[in-house]
Please model this.
Amino acid sequence: MQIERVEQFHLQMPLRHPFETSFGREEVVHKIILAVYADGLVGYGESPVDVRPFYSPETIETCWHVQRDYLIPMLLGAQVEHATDIPLLFERVRGHQMAKAGLEAAVWDLEARRAGVPISELLGGSRRRVECGVSIGIQDSLDDLLSRISAFVGEGYRRIKIKIKPGWDVEVVRAVRERFAALPLMVDANSAYTLEEVEILRALDAFDLMMIEQPLAHDDIIDHAALQRQLRTPICLDESIHTVGRAREAFELGSCGIINIKPARVGGITNARAIHDLCQARGMPVWCGGLLESGIGRAHNLAVASLPNFSLPGDISASDRYWAEDIVEPPFTLNPDGTMDVPTGPGIGVTVLRDRLETFCVRQAAYPA
Ligand code: OSB
Ligand code: MG
Model:
């Protein structure tokens, strides 16, 4: 198919509850939504990129610029048979994984709609439902955290992830474990520690955590390997795994026991599937992470998480965990057993609400103009 038109929408979506990590507190989430047109059809994708280069080196501004000036011109007029062709088409642009991922996701949607099948089917997904967890930010008090956890457990979420940072770690985890003895629990440090703090991380071994996510530097795989040798709890890498090659290196070095695959962080769905396949062949479990996506990115993540080796609950939570109003219909909901249905309609399988897109949009552009 020949890509005829691309639109970019910079959205600002208010969160229902602020989300705090070791790098700051967010009340509004920025993102770029992409619409890609061909053969009378439109496909949607999302670049869930922050305004600040704190989680990833990309920002809304770099993403907008790299898409506008490089990636969209490469896409326009290109003959694209399959969404799997996109990584090669974008190969000359180094990095900028989230910028690439949003456009690639839109082409997956377009290709699946054209074929009249859900993205999960095009990908080779085998699950109809995926297990859902929830990621809870740093709270103002321990009481607030315990009551948030208890509310999410009550809704049926199958595992809880809490964010930690120095000063909000061992004692917090101890209190959570005392209150919820059998809860599938994990922590995410977003790179807040160094190897010098190994004793804090070793203390976490006492709490039967499923994993410790990204304790050390955002780009490291060497120190994580040294740390993993000193911990019983598996390390899960997030930030450090931004390419397929990085996943292979981390496996070879023994830097982690588990990988959190976020399609946006690894440059798209094709790469996400390649990392999934590589881990599956090596017996390493993976799960699908999130970046506070709208319903568009969530639909793509669900399709990816339907692949067989996504064997642990993901950071795929219901629309109402994030938004009072999502930009798709129907919103994503949690089944009482803590799973979410993988959409079965063509493409992303949900309807994009253009009026909501306009409501949250602070800047938009179309190519050709
Ligand atoms: O590290 O996994 C992370 C959100 C923004 C940036 C980084 C992370 C997160 C989350 C939330 O943990 C995952 C989600 O519910 O989308
Ligand atoms: Mg993380």
Notes: The radius of gyration is 20 Å. The chain has two domains: 5-116+350-368, 121-341. The longest strand covers residues 5-21. The pocket of 2-succinylbenzoate (ligand 1) is lined by residues 55, 135, 188, 190, 238, 289-292, 315, 317 (CB under 6 Å).
